[in-house]
Amino acid sequence: MSERPCLVFDDRLTAYNFGQTHPMAPVRVELTMALARQLGVLDAFDVVGADACTDEQLLAVHAAGYVERVRKLSAHPTHADPSIGLGTEDNPVFAGMHEASTLIAGATVEAARRVWTGQTRRAVNIAGGLHHAMADRASGFCIYNDVAVAIAWLLDQGAQKVAYVDIDAHHGDGVQQLFYDDPRVLTISIHEGPQSLFPGTGWATEVGGEGAEGSAVNIALPPGTSDAGWLRAFHAVVPQVLREFGPDVLVTQHGCDSHMDDPLTNLMLSVDGQLASYRALRDLAEEVAGGRWVVTGGGGYAVTDVVPRTWAHLLAVVADADVDPATETPLDWRAEVQRLRGISPPFRMGDGRSAGYRAWELGFDPASWLDRQIQATRTECFPWHGIDPTL
Which UniProt keyword terms apply here (predicted)? Predict the structure, then answer.
């Protein structure tokens, strides 16, 4: 097994493009790669190209009729089909969308394959993490669910338990729904609560289907939650459940739209807080999954100020080449931001915030909305894993 992590990437992954005015601009991936390259982070990776997933892999999670309809709309992008979520404001139809989506799914499958076959312990598809897509419809900027396709592939290859942790500001509803009745897949999502953010799901009471109770874990955060509260919630739930579940592989989705500057959400994290979450997940992958860690990107719509810095940090963490948040962003990268976006880029890799938090073990405050949400998750889920929620 190589100690060098694998990055599955080529420029074709940026063809997943809903248009110039859409929030999910592919420039966020381009600027991430440019920043990571100029920081020297990519030197630590084996970088391999992406191939489209096969029809068999895609159909393991998506309905055949849906895939066929996406193919047709992809070839005739002047048409639309809102009944399957395509041709809407969130998910405009674009030429080649089937090919672009299967390429992203294939890249995540390749990351999973590299880890499962022992070629590497850690692998990344930074363009992946399209966690809202359902079996038979597009949703929330997501056409095919690359994460679910990769998890299904792992199960087909013999994985007995796969844990999925989603730290996007939006609930990881598609992945949860696709495996809701499968006790072999643990889905954990920590997100802004459904009362204030799309997709309106992810309550603590969503714990898994019959025979798979406890396989879905949802931590619904109040709007306005910042680094200290987010990290308090994460550490009060995620490590305990992962330890009891004992996965063969840890798959993680790293949407960075939880940042305070993201235009679509109401959480208040900093780059420094997000970096702390990446380090925590790296440690958990080592502890609970023998280091087998498959990593994807996700949401993130502050495409120049936030996404490139947070995901460059993510790549650095995967490579054990952590970048000090006080590091200045490279001059050439700043010039690239000016050229592509015409705005002043961030000067440093962090936001100058502390990533400290108050541990749950120090006490529960019933007057705190955040603490009530944490306790609700613990109460609903912990007993299914044999954990006492009061401790």
Answer: Acetoin catabolism
Could you report the per-residue pLDDT of 328-381, keeping only the tens digit for each? 999 999 999 998 888 889 999 999 999 999 999 999 999 999 999 999 999 999
Active site residues: 132
Q: Determine the 3-state secondary structure of 283 from DSSP.
A: helix
The ranges assigned to domains in the chain are 6-385
Rounded Cα gap, residues 128 and 253, in angstroms = 8
pTM of this structure: 0.98
Length of the chain: 391
What is the CATH architecture of 6-385? 3-Layer(aba) Sandwich (3.40)
Asked whether 143 and 97 are in contact (CB, 8 A), the reply is yes
229-261 tens-digit pLDDT: 999 999 999 999 999 999 999 999 999 999 999
Structure tokens at 104: 């992203």
End-to-end CA distance of the chain: 39
Report the C-alpha gap between 90 and 96 in whole angstroms.
17
CA gap 235, 18 in Å, rounded = 36
- pLDDT given at position 101: 98
CB–CB of 307/126 below 8 Å?
Answer: no
